[in-house]
Amino acid sequence: MLELIDVWYEVEGKAILKGINARFEKQRVYSILGTNGAGKSTLAYLIMGLEGYRPTRGKILLDGEDITDLSVTERAKRGITLMWQEPARFTGIKIRDYLTLGGRRKVSKEELERVLELVGLNPALYLERNVDEKLSGGERKRVELASILLMKPRYTILDEPDSGIDIMSLEMIEKVLSELVNAGGSVILVTHREEIALESDYAFLICHGSILKEGNPSEIVQFYKNSCDRCDHPNEPSG
Ligand code: ADP
Ligand code: MG
Ligand code: MG
């Protein structure tokens, strides 16, 4: 289990996250829903432990181990992975080499083709292409999703997995989620879109850096639609 205990994050005296408490159990899909600027990506970076993202207060535990001060590499070794909102460009590496880690990841041709197809990329067209600026943002995200499927992490954080991907991709995201869960993993799905949050087992609604409400995704989505107007007005008190 991954646990956040009273996690605060402050930058230049401004509190971006204010006492987040959350538990993520095995083989479950969680969504973190909230409007732009709510603090979702910051929360994702803190869980992954990116450079400069350490809680100013609070703790992060993985199976009871305090990982609050561990580096991103140490967390990756323990099975935590993050797909960025804007995936990096890896100029000059073929998709085949990116997915097989230059041959270090043992994966059959069939498996390689299967995951590419699952994320909506035709293997015949994409395996030998370079991961570079000629790929669209959506294509790079699909390549990253394929890589995550081969990795089978224990905890996958997907930051706005649909941004930059066409509207047809909800079905693809569903398939990715069920594969990760069937492989024994859990997913933390960061999104501002209701239909994505509905794909989860449990939802957290984050507003101005706090969890405003959590529970059944359809109830949380309903609340978000009906009563979360104030989330769009960052200068008003969030209660
Ligand atoms: P979301 O992903 O929910 O859209 P973010 O986590 O990116 O939101 O940002 C939350 C808030 O914190 C925003 O108001 C953003 O401008 C602010 N913020 C994020 N990172 C920093 C930083 N390094 N320095 C100052 N403000 C930041
Ligand atoms: Mg944002
Ligand atoms: Mg974000």
From TrEMBL:
Domain ABC transporter, first and last residues per copy: 2-233
UniProt KW ATP-binding keyword: yes
Residue intervals passing through the bilayer: none
Listed SUPFAM superfamilies: P-loop containing nucleoside triphosphate hydrolases
Keywords assigned: ATP-binding, Nucleotide-binding
Keyword 4Fe-4S tagged: no
Cited SMART domains: AAA
Annotated family: Belongs to the ABC transporter superfamily. Ycf16 family.
PANTHER family named among the record's database cross-references: ABC TRANSPORTER I FAMILY MEMBER 6, CHLOROPLASTIC
Name of the protein: ABC transporter related
Organism of derivation: Thermotoga petrophila (strain ATCC BAA-488 / DSM 13995 / JCM 10881 / RKU-1)
